[in-house]
UniProtKB/TrEMBL annotation:
This is Alpha-hydroxy-acid oxidizing enzyme. Glyoxylate binds at residues 21, 125, 156, 247, 250. The lineage of its organism: Bacteria, Bacillati, Actinomycetota, Actinomycetes, Micrococcales. Residues 1-350 form the FMN hydroxy acid dehydrogenase domain. The keyword rRNA processing does not apply.
Amino acid sequence: MDLVELERRAAARLPQHVYDYMRATAGGSEVLERQIAEWDAIRLRPRVLTGATPPATATTVLGTPVAAPILVAPMAQQVDAHPDGERATAAGARAAGSLLGVSTNTAVPFARIAEGGAPWWFQLYVTRDRRLSTALLERAVAAGAGAVLLTVDITRLRHPRAGASVSVEPTDWTDGRTGARLANLTEEELRIARGEGGRGDRGLGVDAITWIREVTGLPVVVKGVLRGDDAARAVDAGAASVLVSTHGGRGLASSVGSAAVLAEVVSAVGGRAEVYADSGIRSGLHAAAGLAIGARAVFVGRPVMWGLAADGAAGVTTVLEALRDELVGAMDLLGASTVADLTPDLVAPR
Ligand SMILES: Cc1cc2nc3c(=O)[nH]c(=O)nc-3n(C[C@H](O)[C@H](O)[C@H](O)COP(=O)(O)O)c2cc1C
């Protein structure tokens, strides 16, 4: 898939400030480029003479069947990319047999997103005033969310042109970029959200996992883990999965990349929970490498956003299907008939 061309088409359709926001990292563009390069640098050891049948990519994540272990990362305010926003993303994901994360900062009502027909997981930023988070969680459950992605990393974007930090709070309730209104809060809740109570809870501990499980009855995926010890603590506290992520380079500029720490996290979790990875996944080869190291699935962010901006739901489907086709090609060359055959021995030691 020609992602450079797709991004160019998306950029041509997006207002400059929206494109800049989507592309932004915690530093310059080199932050994300370095992380993509780390996926590229993984060397694979193909198996031959296996008698392997043509590869099948179908699997499950937390029991939900998906056509391939390539899922859509939660991204804020997709109405900036396409008028139907997350509803179009959901329809595109459904056509590809995939699943999507839905950001706390969506301007589309959960029920409309659910109409798109794809399984979806609600992404939560816990607020200082927990009433806001509770309300969102309850509404997500009512609309059919299958799990909660609890985002625990902290983002700080740098403006790609000005070079200065733009303070984008994780809970950007008013959305100064477009004025889009967050659709899943009442007027009264939005009033609270615009004050101190709407800011991210910086004092979050592992007890948040128990609390979310109690409020929702759903499995909790902890998103933004980059260390084995943190992953183990999250799982000990009841997390069903951990998502190894640098928030697409939007967290700490000089942080380690997901590719570099995935094996450590897989080992620390020791099969007690599912492990996923995102940040810099740009090809089926990257996905194959992540799965071989031990991820159950990978999430993809910006490429899906570019597909959405360029071609709406169809663009989302095209990106997901192209990645899946590339994964099939990689599995074929690696001698893997199913995703379970993607095992750590396929990865060369460093
Ligand atoms: C425009 C944009 C908005 C995002 N919004 C959120 C968000 O609201 N919540 C969240 O947990 N992660 C958010 N992320 C991070 C993604 O979920 C994911 O971790 C990241 O995009 C993966 O990296 P990639 O873009 O290199 O694939 C956002 C990323 C982008 C690019």
